[in-house]
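1st attempt posting a full record on here, be nice pls
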Amino acid sequence: MKGLANIIFFLVLAIVPAHGQHTSYAKIDFQEEVHDFDTIAIDADSYSCIFHFTNTGNAPLFINDVVSSCGCTVAEWPTTPIMPDREGSIAVKYNATQTGSFVKTILVKSNANNSPKVALQVKGYVKERTRHDKTII
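the predicted structure (as tokens):
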């Protein structure tokens, strides 16, 4: 009987501290994951958009890398940690070099517990420049 009491005592000691531990993690939530440029002109200056996000977790969020699907899409992201309940942003520039529809993916890699990889997208339609475009050279 004494042996059974000792076993129960040690089990309780092992379970109680584990139950009281608080898990810390970062969580990334984007306001939008797709930006539609609609119709844009070819060879104009690059088009830009910003993807806003919030760290809704309880630990610092680190953006480890941001990779675009093509060289015509470039992203800038924060290199410092985003603290809990704080906002950050990823700026994306798209350079329209071919006419027609496009969808470009930007893969965001972070330490977020809910989504360590998030695929953002920019899309639209690139048209030929006409005489009526104000930006014609």
